[in-house]
Amino acid sequence: MAPQSSDPASPNFRETIIRVRGLEVGFGTKTVMKDLDLDVYRGEILGFVGPSGSGKSVLTRTILGLVPKRAGTIEVFGENLDDLPPEEHRRLERRWGVLFQHGALFSALTVKQNVQVPMREYLDLSDRLLDELAMLKIEMVGLKPDAADKMPSDLSGGMIKRAALARALSLDPEIVFLDEPTSGLDPIGAGDFDELIATLQKTLGLTVFMVTHDLDSLHSVCDRVAALGDGKVIAAGPIETMLASEHPWLRSYFHGKRARAVMG
Amino acid sequence: MPEIDPEPTCEIEDGGGTVRVRLNGRWTATHASAVEKNMADLVAQAEGGRVILDLSSVSRLDTLGAWVLDRTRHELGDKGLSADFTGARDEHRILLDEVAYRGFQTSQPQKPGTIVDFLADIGRSVVGVGKDFAQGTSFFGEIVSALVKVALNPPRFRVPAVTHQLEQIAYRGAPIIALISFLVGAIVAQQGIFQLQKFGAIAFVVDLIGILVLRELGVLLTSIMVAGRSGSAFTAEIGSMKMREEIDALRVMGLDPVEVLIVPRILALLIGLPLLTFISNISALLGGAVVTMTYGGISLDIFLVRLQQAIAFSTFMVGMIKAPFMALIIGLIASLEGMAVQGSAESLGRQVTSSVVKAIFMVIVVDGIFAMFFAAIRY
Ligand SMILES: Nc1ncnc2c1ncn2[C@@H]1O[C@H](COP(=O)(O)OP(=O)(O)OP(=O)(O)O)[C@@H](O)[C@H]1O
Ligand SMILES: [Mg+2]
Question: How many domains does chain B have?
Answer without folding.
Answer: 2
